[in-house]
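input
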Amino acid sequence: MTDERSGPPGSPADLASQLRSAADRIMAGWTAAAGTGTAGPPSLPGLPTMPATMSAGQLEALLEDLAARRAQVQALKTQLEGFDEQLGTLEASVRPFLEWLRTWADLEKTMGEFWRSPSAGPAL
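output
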């Protein structure tokens, strides 16, 4: 079983070409196995998140949450101020009506005493 190419090894350029061809076949196999369309070495697993990075991320999330809550409080404060103004307007509108009713009640009381007969006695 001899190969037609058997004999003394070829030049260094031939060896480099064969090694390059073998490397390309290996890379093509890795690419196909990984299911990516780009040739390259398989990706290495990422490093675990360091404690300081986790703490910074947690503090950032906390600050974002606090800012959102403050925005909600400001919106609620604005709504309450508007509601307070509406209540103040309603109160100012109803107060003259109360005064008118008190005056009318006093008039009714006076008129009732005026029309009462003297023999009926004093009103309670």
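quick obs: The two ends are 139 Å apart (CA to CA).
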